[in-house]
Sequence to fold (596 residues):
Amino acid sequence: AQLYILYILLYFLHFVLTQLRNRRSTMKYIKTNYTILDKFLDAVKTHPDKPFILFREQTFTYQEADALSSRAARVLLQSGQLREGDTVALMLANEPMFVWLWLGLVKIGCSAAFLNYNIRSKSLLHCFHRTSAKTLVAAVELQDAVEEVLPSLLEQQVRVYLLTDTCQITGVESFKDKMSRVSPEPLAKDLRSHLTLQSPATYIYTSGTTAAMITHGKLWAMSFLQHLSGVNSRDVFYVSLPLYHSTGFISVTGAIERGITVALRSKFSTSQFWEDCRKYNVTVIQYIGETMRYLCNTPRKLDDRNHRVRLAIGNGIRADVWREFNNRFGNIDIKEFYGATEGNLLLMNYFGKVGAVGRLGVLTKMLSSYAVIKYDLDKEEPLRDLSGFCIEADKGEPGLLVSKITARTPFSGYAGDLQQSEKKKLHNVFEKGDMFFNTGDLLSIDADNFIYFQDRVGDTFRWKGENVATTEVADVITLADCIREANVYGVKVAGHEGRTGMAAVTLRDGNKFNSTALYRHVENLLPAYARPRFVRIQNSLATTGTYKLKKAELVQEGFDPNLISDPLYFLDEKKKNYVPLTVDIFNDVTSGQIKI
Ligand SMILES: *[C@@H]1O[C@H](CO)[C@@H](O)[C@H](O)[C@H]1NC(C)=O
Ligand SMILES: *[C@@H]1O[C@H](CO)[C@@H](O)[C@H](O)[C@H]1NC(C)=O
Fold:
């Protein structure tokens, strides 16, 4: 136990020193409005020939990245449609061009909205219009998705680019050929003369359609994660998570902060993971709980420990997977952190305590003001005492994590959605007039002050690394002819992180449940991770006194046909249909025989 205390003290010292160092550079950055782009341009000066991005067989140095991003910026400028402060929507998978476009946009004082490329049709348009973007740049493999919404975009005078050399579609312009025709020279700084740390750097969608505004200041704060985790200038960082999410994106901006090399992969692949680590000499990997589990589930290999990975940074790893991962792939230091894209706090497990996301210390509490408060699952709101204030949860009791909103820890809200932004704020938490950010996450703190993630609450759930907004799924389902109302929630499935989607529905009078129709409907309108895996047909949906749909009981009952008498259906990917959920199917899903 004494050794443990020594460890904690050492980590503490490290933490305080890095915090102070960061604080000092932060002060300098604030005074001069020094952005990640400025850091990048300085890195280009100090190590122009150092590899910045490795992608497939290609290597791009810092200098080459600078030139390519200037070219991208010039193409966008020449369209004549962009002015400083404008936003451009980007829709592409992980590829170097993603980074060139973002850097290029900041060079001309603009920002980017990162569209999730799995989203289609109505949802895509909805996401696009969440920001004020009047320009869309999309990858060539997304041509069909673009064409589907093109009439509507053109009607709204949106300029649409496809990342190709030639393009025959009316109303769509090619981008790459134009890039090769413009100058790679640096762009004048006056093009971004109004840029401050309060200006938007990106818009990142936190669930289907809510876009969190990430200012340049916030981006700095998030980009220190690698620094805090002990990444040094010789490291090579492997990124295979989508760049349109904050976790993926800040691994690139964090790499710029550290001046290191990023090995970028278009999509996570279990079979290629360690091959890539060996090929690119990767020393730091990034994870979510799912990817670590997938890696542990592969057959053992003789060269499992043949790699140079020393550090893993991410979130959501289960305690059993953590142990298994270390047993199998060697003593890789796992730095588990907790942070919401739109949130205003970051927790980090410095101590290597298996399963925890951080530790509540006196100092961390002083540096950022957060609390875990008692939460009423049925009413979906915090519990309040007789004077109307919230109550801190007991040791070991899961409660809602809230974080105080102050000038130093601001909450920038969602683009064009005041109502959603307001919903994330809690007022009068511990005293009259205070304001906290509601993370929507349940955490618990144990007797040794270690903090553990428990669950998501409220109207989103997490599945396969994506946040799914229940109301958006319900809106889609109720468009199906036979469905009257839908109540969507997430249910736990043994062996999986997060929750998978389930919908309790009622049918329109005189209608039978048309499974093919519903399947086609969700397949057309929802990305795979958001499609409800289970459907429960009810005569009526239970509501609370305030006409909110009741979820807690449904969530608790899950999808077990042994317990539920309502008709249940299962989304069968092979049959491309919803099929009756039999006890056999239930057993196969919970034992992992059927992969979902
Ligand atoms: C990886 O390291 C080896 C040995 O140090 C070196 O020969 C090789 O070029 C490196 N590969 C990359 C992609 O940097
Ligand atoms: C179910 O929906 C499909 C597709 O919309 C339709 O073709 C079919 O006739 C419907 N079946 C019944 C029994 O209504």
Residues 280-281 surround 2-acetamido-2-deoxy-beta-D-glucopyranose (ligand 1) (CB under 6 Å).
